[in-house]
Design a protein that fits this description.
The complex is a heterodimer of chains A (563) and B (163).
Chain A lengths: L1 E3 H11 L4 E4 L6 H7 L6 E4 L3 H15 L3 E5 L3 H4 L2 H10 L3 E7 L15 H5 L5 E4 L6 H13 L5 E7 H5 L1 E3 L19 H13 L3 E5 L1 H5 L3 H11 L3 E3 L14 E4 L6 H9 L2 E5 L5 H4 L10 E6 L13 E4 L2 H13 L10 H14 L13 H11 L5 E4 L3 H9 L8 E2 L10 H11 L5 E6 L9 H7 L5 E6 L4 H10 L15 H7 L3 E5 L5 H10 L4 E6 L23
Parallel strand pairs in A: 2-3, 2-4, 4-5, 5-7, 6-7, 9-10, 9-12, 10-11, 12-13, 13-14, 15-16, 15-17, 17-18, 18-20, 19-20
Antiparallel strand pairs in A: 1-8
Helix pairs in contact in A: 1-2, 1-7, 3-5, 3-18, 9-14, 11-14, 12-15, 16-17, 16-22
Chain B lengths: L3 E10 L4 H12 L5 E6 L5 E10 L1 H13 L3 E6 L5 E12 L5 H10 L3 E5 L3 E8 L1 H11 L4 E6 L3 E4 L5
Antiparallel strand pairs in B: 1-3, 1-4, 2-3, 5-7, 5-8, 5-9, 6-7
Classes of the chains: A alpha/beta (563), B alpha+beta (163).
């Protein structure tokens, strides 16, 4: 059967179970877009900037637990995906980005809208391809999806020259990929499993530290069972929020630079850390030499490079988090329950004392809105059921601290790369994946402006997202650093010249509400969430509010600034 | 941290861009490459890269893991953990005045090198051996005046034991 390259591409994408593509056409993708619109079972969401397409595909992937797909044209279309790819790479999100390319005969000739996107994206993708042989098109697409979602997931880019897309190609469905150079190891070493259980039995002050790997391997249930069985308190990284119920009594709160007092203190005093799907990022460890000085560390990760990279661990296990935890749980179940939780009441009492003396706190007075109050009210009103996306900075940290995530895949943030402008396109992607769910972008006034054009995408496609702007008219996180470490020299962070976000919403055909009075926060949130369509809620908040606790960069995580 | 020299033998898919993935990995993560040598193996779809690097023990562990993580890398062998044979080829052009020629030829003989080109005032010498032999040879001929040098990176294979 002869098909065009474009037809093969669409056929192969659909064969992967993909039903939504975020894209933006250009000269190099006309045939592909022409083919896509012929398929009723494949939705193309036209974004307003290619960066938005990639972030939307990223969030779609997380909310839907599948592989997100973006399609862009050559040259600038392709370069505009770099930030989104780098973000997905840092967060290990499975995604395939297809980009158009000039015809193979023109490659290397500095043709119009030609760029070496494979060269550019090599360090920020899990893998990438330039398809030069039409007969390899189908197999390459299949391989791209396979690599994106297997092992430690990540983004894969496929560069598609125009002549390949136009070519008439004899099509046969390729066989399942079998790459001799790529065989991720899912099964843990049995000996290490025994060691884990012995270490748990010997521990008196254990902590589970879960990360994004738990979300990706869908093992939050296993983490929860392990914690409950051995009465081990749980903390997570930013990427791990939702891996353990945020309202459970064993929950410590997030760890790290803006982690809770009790989470950071627990790590500082722990004698055993069970690290699952984490990579010990510097925002979590603070000063490495003072990280968990009394603890042995068990580290479970599917990616061997994550182990011993920053932190020396005593019990490394390379394997899928879920499979490994299942093995550990099976062995734990054979033990006497009380042996798994020796002296735990002493440890939990200590943690409770930390919690009582230094909880997360802010004071909501009557004159001006505190940003934390807005997030806390949002949590109350939505009963913790919303999918929350964030921008980056203070808004992200307050969302992480005050929206208590009980389930995985409900907190979608650019954790590793920290991309401002992520939240709105991510909300659109999450809404496309879960149309029945409430999706809220917790934003700052600075970062919302970085991809504000995607409001049109939301409105046009009836992807009703709710945007909560914590508007302090500052680039707040940088301002906070300037306040604390740069003598309050607020260089280039004052953003008191801003658009009228209510009018801006209206200009895009959305609805806008503004709230300046603490007494009206709840009412505004309810009104905004109940209003059909895309809504911006602009909360004018305390200008110089800071995120606490805070561990100064490079300090020990137990040395926190508390107010 | 204590550093030492490591010799890695890496089998990779023989595809365009693979070398750039490896070079990019090293530059992006701040690893050093002392020397690099690449050629196809008896299997035309596989190339062998022999790479020498100097680093500490923790870094070499990361280098090996990161290399292995690249999709096109088939195997990574750390030869420094084994017994191995190492060779490197160099062509050394040196000043050879009539009064120095005998001395140069004696050194060539001792090192089991070969003179592969002779000019009125120059010898070009081919030397093959491990990096220690090269260093020793060069230190002896340096006083005579080296005009230019072309050298390959190290290539190496593990020794077959007990056969």
């Amino acid at each position: 059967m002869k098909l065009t390259g474009a037809q093969i591409l669409v056929k192969m994408i659909k064969a992967q179970g993909v039903d939504t593509i975020f894209g933006y056409p250009g000269g190099a993708t006309i045939e592909i877009h022409d083919e896509i619109v012929r398929h009723d079972d494949l939705r193309h969401i036209l974004v307003r900037h290619e960066q938005g397409a990639v972030h939307a595909a990223d969030a779609y992937s997380r909310a839907h637990q599948t592989t997100g797909v973006a399609l862009v044209t050559s040259g600038p279309g392709a370069t505009n995906t770099v930030t989104g790819l780098a973000s997905a790479h840092a967060d290990s999100i499975p995604m395939v980005v297809f980009c158009g390319q000039v015809p193979t005969g023109l490659i290397g000739n500095d043709a119009f809208q030609e760029v070496d996107i494979v060269g550019i994206t090599r360090p920020c993708t899990k893998h990438n391809y330039l398809v030069k042989d039409p007969d390899k098109l189908a197999a390459t697409i299949q391989e791209a999806f396979f690599i994106a979602r297997s092992g430690r997931p990540g983004p894969v880019l496929v560069d598609l020259p125009k002549d390949i897309i136009q070519a008439q190609i004899e099509f046969t469905m390729p066989e399942e990929p079998n790459l001799r150079s790529y065989k991720p190891n899912y099964k843990p070493n049995k000996k290490q499993i025994h060691k884990v259980v012995e270490m748990i039995k010997a521990a008196r002050r254990p902590v589970v530290f879960a990360g994004g790997g738990v979300i990706l391997s869908r093992s939050s249930e296993q983490v929860t069972r392990l914690a409950k069985m051995a009465q081990i308190p749980v903390t997570t990284s930013l990427m791990g929020l939702g891996a353990f119920p945020g309202t459970d009594s064993l929950w410590l709160g997030m760890l790290g630079m803006h982690g809770t007092f009790r989470a950071n203190m627990s790590i500082g005093h722990s004698d055993l850390i069970i690290a699952v799907g984490v990579r010990f990022d510097d925002r979590v460890t603070g000063k490495i030499s003072k990280f968990a000085p009394h603890a042995d560390i068990i580290q479970i990760d599917i990616d061997p490079t994550s182990i011993h990279k920053n932190i020396e661990v005593q019990c490394p296990i390379v394997g899928d988090c879920k499979t490994t935890l299942e093995h550990i749980l099976a062995l734990m179940e054979k033990q006497d329950a009380k042996d798994l939780a020796v002296d735990r009441d002493v440890w939990l009492a200590q943690i409770d004392q930390w919690k009582q003396t230094m909880p997360l706190k802010y004071e909501q007075k009557t004159d001006v809105i505190k940003p934390q109050f807005v997030v806390e009210k949002l949590w109350e009103i939505t009963r913790g059921q919303a999918i929350i996306t964030t921008e980056v900075g203070q808004n992200q940290m307050w969302a992480a601290q005050y929206y208590h995530f009980d389930r995985p895949n409900h907190f979608i943030t650019s954790g590793g790369l920290g991309v401002m402008g992520f939240g709105l396109p991510a909300a659109i992607g999450a809404k496309a994946a879960c149309p029945d769910r409430l999706v809220v972008d917790v934003a700052g006034d600075g970062s919302i402006q970085m991809n504000i054009q995607e409001l049109m995408t939301a409105v046009e496609n009836c992807l009703d997202v709710k945007i909560v702007i914590l508007n302090n008219r500052f680039l707040g996180m940088v301002r906070q650093w300037q306040e604390l470490f740069y003598n309050k020299a607020y260089a280039c962070t004052n953003m008191d010249k801003a658009p009228d976000f209510v009018k801006l919403a209206e200009a895009y055909g959305a609805t806008g509400y503004r709230c300046t009075d603490p007494a009206c926060v709840e009412e505004t949130l309810k009104k905004g969430l109940d209003t059909p369509g895309t809504v911006i809620m602009d909360f004018v908040v305390e200008r110089e509010e800071s995120v606490y606790p805070m561990v100064p960069a490079g300090g020990a995580i137990t040395d926190m600034l508390l107010v | 941290m204590e550093t030492s020299r490591y010799l890695l033998s890496i089998l990779v898919d023989n595809e365009p861009g693979v070398l750039s993935r490896i070079a990019g990995l090293f530059s992006g993560r701040g690893f050093n490459i002392d020397s690099l040598s690449v050629a196809t193996t008896d299997d035309p779809v596989v190339s062998r890269i022999t790479m020498a690097t100097t680093c500490d023990a923790q870094t070499i562990e990361q280098i090996k893991k990161q290399l292995h993580k690249l999709i096109n890398v088939i195997t990574v062998t750390d030869l420094t953990e084994k017994k191995y044979v190492e060779r490197q080829l160099a062509l050394v052009k040196i000043h050879a005045n009539p009064e120095k020629r005998a001395e140069i030829l004696r050194i060539v003989d001792i090192f089991r090198c070969r003179v592969v080109d002779v000019g009125h005032a120059h010898y070009t010498i081919e030397i093959s051996g491990d990096s220690g032999k090269h260093e020793a040879f060069l230190s002896l001929v340096k006083p005579m005046g080296i005009v230019e040098i072309a050298s390959t990176g190290a290539i190496a294979l593990a020794r077959e034991m007990g056969k």
